[in-house]
Amino acid sequence: MARPPLSAEDRRFLDSYDPSDFERPSVAVDVALITVLEGSLHALAVRRPESPYKGRFALPGGFLGMKESLDQAAARVLADKAGLEGLFIEQLYTFGAPRRDPRTRVLSVAYYALVSQERMRDAISKDQRLLRLEVPWEGEAGGAVLAHDGARKIALAFDHDEILGMAIKRLRGKLNYAPVGYQLLGETFTLRQLQEVHEAILGQKLLKPPFRRRMLASGDLVATGEFEAGTAYRPAELYRFADRADLGGSYLERVTRERTLTSGDEDTLRGILGRG
Amino acid sequence: MARPPLSAEDRRFLDSYDPSDFERPSVAVDVALITVLEGSLHALAVRRPESPYKGRFALPGGFLGMKESLDQAAARVLADKAGLEGLFIEQLYTFGAPRRDPRTRVLSVAYYALVSQERMRDAISKDQRLLRLEVPWEGEAGGAVLAHDGARKIALAFDHDEILGMAIKRLRGKLNYAPVGYQLLGETFTLRQLQEVHEAILGQKLLKPPFRRRMLASGDLVATGEFEAGTAYRPAELYRFADRADLGGSYLERVTRERTLTSGDEDTLRGILGRG
DNA sequence: TTAATAGTGTCTCTGAGACACTATGTG
DNA sequence: CACATAGTGTCTCAGAGACACTATTAA
Question: What secondary structure letter does DSSP report for B4?
């Protein structure tokens, strides 16, 4: 007696079936910690103390603990590896190519965080470097970035050059509708400094008058009435960001932080288009 | 002899340390399959055959195989659960609250996909429904959506209402710079149909003249010279999307698909700001 | 006074909103 | 011919780009 024919779904299932499918992947959280220094985007890189890629630079990261959320893991990585807390941080993308880690299957849930030049400088320790990022693509396209240490190109471990490219792409998009620039400056800043941050992110020069108009019209800026000191010539007024209330942690962190299991009722369900 | 004092990092480490930290989470891929029907956004929901949330509707999903990429897993889920291939699909966000699944720790790498009403209708089988989505928030805010089956609210399993909210937020943002509307229509369509799709995504009415101008000026549309048939009154011209070349699969799928491990050279590295 | 940057005024151009208008196919 | 929708013309207004201009401070 012949076996019944296999359905298309059965065949797809068997084709992709493998006993190892029931293993679980490791899950890491990696953070692209971005700052603007000397008019260029820079990211923190940590020298890997062990294989794979021993001695090579990588983004700060760590494995996800079973009791922490992804956002908590990202914040922990920043606190442990750079001693930085309270930064703007947001989930970016999850990288999951099967062979992206040579040891075993490791997913990387990538985050990006923004920090001012001053805090970044204070945070750096001896096995860490700030790498300058060069973006070899324009606009929406996206891709990997090139990382330099000022003299030569640095090949990052794993696919971390892709993660940095994703972070820059996200930053560029976000600049259109969110006040991300403030996260990269100190408590007070001049409009020129803010413009330089935008120029670094976008990779292009901006004109001063429209930039000032946009920023001042956005309502996100408050003039302090104080002026920068120690400049060679006319000092610029210092501004402050209007409302830092909702910038600590991502939206989803707040939504899912205390999310609990609601029982709900087992409705009798009728479909709109179902034909059952 | 007293032990040396613990550093701040040591204390943080010990506080969060737990033997179970070395377990690995399960990783699922869930897909928000979106279509526009009768002027409203709808998503495919599958009735869960087993606990947890037995009998409740959930997004189509499955566990990640150890040999497939995340993008491949998402495409497999669409093929197996809805019989649909070649759709626009893109990674959305990774949901990782520790208790989002009552069984054990399960991360969900969420994707969204777009499909025309016709293909969606053909794909639906007896344990599936199209649910109408209502968006109880405006603009950028984001949050969960409400799902209806036409008569009553449907409580989705897990945090799948959040995933749908994220998908709609992403769609709204993407509408500003990418021609997503075409993914929700057939091969040819009228400008009025395209406008209805945009209106459904944005949740608001648009004016016809500026909408037509924008679409025609974008260069994404090609007039076919043919006209719709069977209309009560004056038939509208049919358009086609200009270039479907780069819309199959996400950017990162293409980038990471064949990514291999490059050996690279172990450069002598000098830092810009490192004080080592 | 000069140098150098801070900050403003204003013109143009583009594109969205708004609305009235013309065009055309079906009954 | 009437109707309903397709499709266009045009006015206004808001905002960006571009550039010249004035203002202010230190040396």
Answer: P
Q: How many CB atoms lie within 10 A of CB B195?
A: 18
CA–CA gap between residue A221 and residue A139 (Å, rounded)? 27
Distance in angstroms (rounded) separating the CA atoms of residues B182 and B171:
12
d(CA A169, CA A247): 20
Q: Residue A56 has what pLDDT?
A: 95
| φ and ψ of B225, to 5 deg | 80, -5
Alpha helices in chain A (DSSP H): 8-16, 70-82, 117-123, 160-174, 191-202, 208-218, 251-257
Q: Is A210 on the interface with B (CB under 8 A)?
A: no
Quick: pLDDT tens for B12-23.
Answer: 655 665 545 578
How far is it, in rounded angstroms, from Cα A150 to Cα A166?
Answer: 22
Q: What's at B153, amino acid-wise?
A: K
Contacts of B98 in chain A (CB under 8 A): 66-69
Query: Where is pLDDT greater, at B51 or A40?
Result: A40
Q: Which of A262, A119, A107 is nearest to B256 (CA)?
A: A107
- Rounded to 10°, the helix A160-174/A191-202 angle is 130
- Taking contacts as CB-CB distances below 8 angstroms, the residues of chain A near B267 are 152-155
Q: CA of A195 vs C1' of D19, distance in Å?
A: 19
Whether A214 CB is under 7 Å from strand C? no
Residue nearest to nucleotide D16 (CA to C1'): A210
How far apart are alpha carbons B58 and B47 in whole angstroms? Answer: 6
